[in-house]
Design brief:
- By secondary structure, the chain is of the alpha/beta class.
- The chain has 2 domains: 9-247 and 433-452, Rossmann fold; 258-430, 3-Layer(aba) Sandwich (Rossmann fold).
- 42% of the residues lie in helices and 14% in strands.
- It has helices at 19-32, 46-52, 84-94, 96-105, 121-128, 140-147, 154-157, 193-206, 222-231, 245-249, 260-265, 285-298, 309-315, 329-333, 347-356, 369-379, 398-409, 414-434, 439-452; strands at 9-14, 38-45, 65-70, 111-115, 132-136, 211-214, 236-238, 272-276, 301-305, 321-324, 338-343, 360-362, 383-385.
- It is globular, with a radius of gyration of 21 Å.
- The structure holds uridine-5'-diphosphate (UDP).
- The site of uridine-5'-diphosphate has 16 residues, from α1 and α15.
- Its EC number is 2.4.1.-.
- It comes from Setaria italica (Foxtail millet).
Length: 453
């Protein structure tokens, strides 16, 4: 009533071109653009524009999040996993020039919000006098580890599990706020000299950004976020969970041609294990077979996301589950029939499970996944880590998988009830953080004020 409209605030967002990173950025933009006067232009490659099916806008992102494209100056999304280093090299060196040409056409934004792993944005912002906000779609814990990597003894970077060859060796002895994370959790990414170089190069730029936004939230990672706030020379905002809960609340969903929602409707409450092991990397063929056999042995009902049609037909049949190529994941996790999530521990998936209050069975592969898995199994205690159960060849056997599924899903065990109780508490915390007046709500307000100044 009579209050002045806030000044318009236009954000140019630059996600790193990978599914998890793009999703996190879109979800953040949706949350920002929910505020009066805020709009966002998301810059992706032409290929990504096609993948998103977004010539200009997407209904689930609301009318104030728009898209612009730069030419396909980086290797295609299809097959990029084959040469991770070459892909990173291209992202780091080829995108800046077409991005600047695009900026020349747009009205000057109040800020550039860029993924940590598109580090050239910091120099572009500095040249143009536009503040750059480094957006971190990893956990705050992983951000702290990578930001402070130089504090770890050189043995880690050289590829040793720990300085004296023993494990567990805790990162927290060197980097505050990283409770429970082991040196070995940083492998394989951080022991690959080429990849590590690229990661550290990105954080060198982060040090020159005007602020940092995390997709996590205060109550979830208070130790790591607290440590970052003490250490970083710039403001650190925790805006999470940056997941598509607004679309869910508004009842906007992707069409379900496979009928999995109807199938879920027909299952008993809390009885279904949702299985999704990542959009980018995948488990070995041997591990896949053990998972399929373990699930069949456990007799658990499951809904399994598998891109490959042949794999889908192999896991169903006699088993008590269905397999589909893709789901509306948050909607699935929030369905009352879902009682557990078998996940590769990608950060988006982890945040979605937290928001849904669903306990997890974790099988991390690489990058930040082992760290997320540690948080789930040892800090939040909302799930079981499978990696520790691996045999000598690194594969987790079917018996171990079947036993873990039963431990997670049993309606009558004290252990499972405890995990469910903790998951329910985090679910409440996630929702409270995002609500008006909550910690993430306030941080988003502070961020908008900071860049609108
Ligand atoms: N996802 C989805 N449907 C699926 C599988 C995955 O919508 O069937 C989404 C999921 O909700 C998440 C993203 O894909 O937003 C995966 O990101 P995450 O960080 O979990 O893992 P990544 O695939 O990047 O390793």
């Amino acid at each position: 009533m009579g209050s002045m409209a806030p000044p318009p605030c236009h954000i140019v967002a630059v996600p790193y071109p990978g599914r998890g990173h793009v999703n996190a950025m879109l979800n953040l933009c949706r949350l920002l653009a929910a505020r009066d006067g805020v709009s966002a232009t998301v810059v992706v490659t032409e290929e990504w524009l096609g993948l998103l099916g977004a010539p200009a806008a997407l209904p689930e992102l609301g009318p104030r999040v728009r898209f612009e494209a730069i030419p396909n100056v980086i290797p295609s999304e299809h097959g990029r996993a084959n040469d991770m280093l070459g892909f990173l090299e291209a992202v780091y060196t080829k995108m800046a020039a077409p991005f600047e040409r695009l900026l020349d056409r747009l009205a000057a934004p109040q800020a550039i919000v860029a993924d940590v792993f598109v580090p050239w944005t910091v120099a572009v912002g500095a040249r143009r006098g536009v503040p750059v906000c480094a957006m971190c779609p990893l956990s705050a814990t992983m951000f702290a580890v990578q930001y402070n990597f130089h504090r770890l003894p050189p043995a880690v970077a050289a590829g040793y599990a720990s300085p004296d060859g023993t494990d567990p060796c805790l990162i927290e002895d060197y980097i505050p706020g990283t409770k429970s994370i082991r040196f070995t959790d940083l492998a394989p990414t951080h022991t690959n000299a080429g990849l590590l170089d690229k990661v550290l190069e990105a954080y060198f730029s982060v040090k020159k950004a005007q602020c940092v936004i995390l997709t996590s939230f205060q109550e979830l990672e208070s130790d790591a976020i607290g440590a970052l706030r003490r250490e970083l020379p710039c403001p650190v905002y925790a805006a999470g969970p940056c997941i598509p809960f607004m679309a869910l609340q508004e009842g906007i969903s992707n069409p379900d041609g496979d009928g999995y929602m109807a199938w879920l409707d027909a299952q008993p409450a809390g009885s279904v294990l949702y299985v999704s092991l990542g959009s980018f990397l995948s488990v070995s063929a041997a591990q896949f077979d053990e998972i399929a056999a373990g699930l069949a042995e456990s007799k658990a009902r499951f809904l399994w996301v598998l891109r490959d049609a042949d794999a889908r037909s192999r896991v169903t049949g006699a088993a008590a589950g269905i397999a589909v190529p893709w789901t509306d994941q948050l909607r699935v996790l929030c369905h009352p029939s879902v009682g557990g999530f078998f996940t590769h521990s990608g950060m988006n998936s982890t945040l979605e499970a937290v928001y849904a209050g669903v306990p997890m069975l974790t099988l991390p592969i690489a990058f930040d996944q082992p760290t997320n898995s540690r948080l789930v199994a040892e800090v939040w205690k909302t799930g079981l880590g499978l990696k520790e159960m691996a045999r000598g060849d690194g594969v987790i056997g079917r018996e171990e998988i079947a036993a873990a599924v039963e431990r997670l899903m049993r309606p009558d065990s004290a252990e499972a009830a405890d995990m469910r109780m903790r998951a329910a508490l985090l679910k409440d915390a996630a929702r409270a953080a995002a609500e008006e007046g909550g910690s993430s709500w306030k941080d988003i307000t502070s961020f908008i004020n900071f860049v609108s100044r």
